[in-house]
Structures are given as C-alpha cells and as structure tokens.
Amino acid sequence: MITLDAITKGYQRGSSEVAALRGISIKIKKGDFVAVAGPSGSGKTTMMNIIGLLDRPSSGRLMIEGVPMDDLSRRERTRFRREHLGFIFQSFNLISVLSVFENVELPLIIARSPLSSSQRRKKVSEVIRRVGLDGREDHKPAELSGGQQQRVAIARALVTVPTLVIADEPTANLDSATGERILSLMKEINRNNGTTFLFSTHDPVIRDMADHVILLHDGNVEREILGSER
Ligand SMILES: Nc1ncnc2c1ncn2[C@@H]1O[C@H](COP(=O)(O)OP(=O)(O)OP(=O)(O)O)[C@@H](O)[C@H]1O
Ligand SMILES: [Mg+2]
After folding, report:
1. Is 171 helix (H, G, I), strand (E, B) or coil?
2. Which SUPFAM superfamilies match (predicted)?
C-alpha cells in the first residue's frame, strides 16, 4: 500500500511560490493499475516524482509498504528506489551505445544484484522475451521502432522485480495503436506478477484501461474513479 497524506509541493519562482500540489491524500493498493490524469500543469509529474522518491514534498507524509519515506536519509531513499521501484519514461531514456540486452542488464549491474553472471543473463533474456523482443538482443535502440524502444524500457524497469513501476506518460511518443499495445503489455504484467503500476496519460483511451483513475486539477485530486464504479 502507498499512502499519500496531505502532500503539498511548492516551487520557488523568483520571489513567489508556485503551488504544484495543494494537499493530495490518496491510497494505492498493492497490485493496483492506476492512471493519473488531468490537464497540463495539474501536478501529475510532480506527484509521480514524489512517489518515485525523485523529489521531496514540501509537507505531508508518504508511506510505501508501511515505511515512512520522510524519515529516510538521502542514501536510504536511493537504496529504496533501486530495490523497490522501476521507472519508464516518456522519451524511453535508453542508452544509445548499448544494445537491447545491455540496456536491460544495466539496472542489475547498478543494483549489484547477487545473481551470478549466468543467472543474470538468463533473467535478462527472460524479461526481453516477456516484452516480445527476443531476437533483438543485439540491436541498438536507434535500430528499433518507438514501440519497440518502449518495450526495452519496460523490460529494463521490470528486470529488478520492482514492487511499483512508475511511468510518466509512457505512450506520449507513440501512435495510439502502439500506445494501446504498450498499455496492454503493462496490464498483462500487472495481472500476472501483481506488480503495481502508476502511469500518467493525456489519452482518454489509455486512461480507461486503468482499474483506478486519479484525476488531478490544479494540484488537487478532483475525482477518483475505481474499477468497481465503472
Ligand atoms: N521545477 C519546477 N520549477 C517550478 N515550477 C515547476 C517545476 N516543475 C513543475 N512546476 C510547476 O508545477 C505545476 C505542476 O507541474 P507538473 O509538471 O507536475 O504538471 P503535469 O500535470 O505533469 O503537466 P503536463 O501534463 O504538462 O506534463 C505547474 O504549474 C508547473 O509549472
Ligand atoms: Mg507531466
């Protein structure tokens, strides 16, 4: 369970402060498939960056799996992020000089995974197969389509078996059919592995693929829609 309790975030801009989040209180259950929607500037990225421990709130409390994140040191936050969270970005953020295989393997190397190198290679191959890219292991990102690059990014996010995957507009740079296929893949992984997904989107079709929608407006939760209410 992820709990946000009265989270606010203000950004200093010159002498004035911009309120990006004005008191967000939400709960995200383990295994949930959650969309964050709302107009540009409503606070989607800010909220996801706070949950992803990439940014700190100005006030309020964030708990992940019963652990109060505010109490952690910088080093503990980094460690928590590495061990429990996976990220998928809008622009894929793949490393262009590395192959598909090496891009997916990288988080395991950074996390100093206890796997032996043959176990690690097996794990990487398995995740690459999972996202439908077997046979492409030796390709560089530039040799792949946008949808295929986003599959690599999904594989890279999943290889460490995170509790939560955070994806800020993962389909923004894809055509709508490819975007829907990427979402279906995320949903399938969510169902099969019980991995919690939190993604933001501007696309109503993509949003409606979620089981739980958090609608933001001007830094507040305007409405929450749960699957059972549909
Ligand atoms: N680093 C920053 N410095 C100052 N203001 C910021 C910063 N990041 C975001 N903001 C402001 O905070 C508010 C929320 O921005 P945020 O990026 O969270 O919106 P968003 O919902 O993700 O928008 P979009 O749909 O365009 O991605 C906006 O008013 C934005 O201008
Ligand atoms: Mg954003």
Report:
1. coil
2. P-loop containing nucleoside triphosphate hydrolases
The whole-angstrom separation of Cα 170 and Cα 44 is: 13
Split at pLDDT 50, 70, 90, the class of 228 is low
User: Would 18 be classed as within a structural domain?
Assistant: no
> Residue 7 and residue 12: Cα distance in Å, rounded?
17
Which residue CA neighbors atom 29 of ligand 1 most closely?
Answer: 41
Question: How many other CB atoms are found less than 10 A from the CB of residue 206?
Answer: 23
- Tally of structural domains, the chain: 1
**30-63 residue pLDDT tens:** 999 999 999 999 999 999 999 999 999 999 999 9
**Which tokens hold the place of 43?**
């606070």
Q: Which atom of ligand 1 is nearest to the CA of 9?
A: 12
Residue 24 belongs to some domain of the structure: no
Pick from 44, 54, 59, 62: which is nearest to 8 by CA?
59
Q: Are strands 164-168 and 59-64 parallel, antiparallel or unpaired?
A: unpaired
- Report the distance separating Cα 183 and Cα 115, nearest Å: 30
- Give the domain range for residue 223: 31-56+73-229
**What tokens does 97 get?**
């000089």
Which atom of ligand 1 is the closest one to the Cα of 49?
Answer: 18
Q: Residue 230's pLDDT band (boundaries 50, 70, 90)? A: low
